[in-house]
Amino acid sequence: MPQRKPESAVDLAEAYYDSEDADTFYREIWGGEDIHIGFYEPPDLDIAAASLKTVEAMARHLDGIGADARVLDIGSGYGGAARHLARTRGLHVACLNLSDVQNAYNQQRNRAAKLDGLVRVVHGNFEKLPFENCSFDVVWSQDAILHSGNRRRVLEEVARVLKPGGRFVFTDPMQADGCPDGVLQPILDRIHLASLASPAFYRRELEKLGFATSSFEELTQHLRTHYDRIGAELVRRRGEIETKASKAYVDRMLQGLRNWVDGADRGHLAWGIFRFDKP
Ligand SMILES: C[S@@+](CC[C@H](N)C(=O)[O-])C[C@H]1O[C@@H](n2cnc3c(N)ncnc32)[C@H](O)[C@@H]1O
């Protein structure tokens, strides 16, 4: 087996999400349950409530699915969505994530909520899913596929593990269709990626894999609101956070958040809820 290059996107994401700096930031500022973009309706919702709203909005795409359905969440973070789906719909959810630190916390939260019979946590890489062909009714993912250096491979894996008739429901921070080359470099540099996907990329690649496009709910304004809110919260609680995370991390994060807000203001970014159905 060839060795992976140490600077691969997978290694970088694993090292980043396992770090004490990142764990502190995402648990304390982002809410600790859900670490994705929130749905700010009404606009004054706090970060945790808005983040739950995104899960609820996505979960509407699971209406009509039986309680015996199997769900796979790829890049599952601390498992907030999995617990929500298990608690509210009785669904079995497998959380696939490469951060051991997040996985340990996820398991702890599942046990505390008495949901460990429904939610299982699997360490792994979504570019090489450790599951049989056609083993899930739903693949779910929130703001995780951006971290891949090989998104086509992730989509092929999703197509492989979904059963016929299965649904792929996901969000991902993307560049807008038609975004000029080079303008997102500050964002890409900070997250050590060569590119972001775009709505057109997902439509094209998933259609090539035989999926039917069901819907894309364009919600980019919430990306802007979310990163702005996270930045304000980090500034407000900076003293407390810097007792647990490094000042250099906080400085870099604040600059990174400003880059996302700026990119959204310039119309270069996109975010929303996709649903694709496998025939
Ligand atoms: C922004 S967080 C989102 C977490 C979760 N989906 C949520 O919404 O709360 C991105 C997640 O993707 C995971 N991730 C990044 N690259 C991955 C890969 N190659 N395989 C599996 N998980 C990955 C990270 O560990 C992290 O949990």
Description of the structure:
- The protein has helices at 9-18, 20-28, 47-59, 80-89, 100-112, 151-161, 185-190, 199-208, 220-236, 238-241, 247-265; strands at 70-74, 92-97, 119-123, 136-142, 162-171, 174-175, 212-218, 269-270, 272-277.
- The chain is of the alpha/beta class and 279 residues long.
- The chain has one domain: Rossmann fold (3-Layer(aba) Sandwich), CATH 3.40.50.
- The protein has a 7-stranded mixed β-sheet, sandwiched between helices. A two-stranded antiparallel sheet has the order 6-8.
- Helix 3 crosses helix 4 and helix 9 packs antiparallel against helix 11 (247-265).
- The chain is globular and about 50 Å long.
- The two termini are 35 Å apart.
- Residues 10, 13, 17, 34-36, 75-77, 80, 96-99, 102, 125-127, 142-144, 147-148 line the site of S-adenosylmethionine.
Which ligands occur here?
S-adenosylmethionine
**Tally of individual helices:** 11
Which CATH C-level class is it? Alpha Beta
Helices and strands, in N-to-C order? HHHEHEHEEHEEHHEHHHEE
Mean pLDDT: 94
Mass-distribution shape: globular
How would you name the CATH homologous superfamily?
Vaccinia Virus protein VP39
Distance N to C terminus = 35 Å
Largest sheet: 7 strands, mixed
Instruction: List low-confidence stretches.
Output: 1-6
- Number of structural domains: 1
Beta-strand fraction estimate: 15-25%
By CATH, the architecture is named 3-Layer(aba) Sandwich
CATH topology: Rossmann fold
SSE-based structural type = alpha/beta
Strand order of the main beta sheet, please?
A: 3-2-1-4-5-9-7
Rg computed from alpha carbons, rounded to a whole number of angstroms: 18 Å
Which range best describes the helical content: under 10%, 10-25%, 25-40%, 40-55%, 55-70% or over 70%? 40-55%
DSSP strand tally: 9
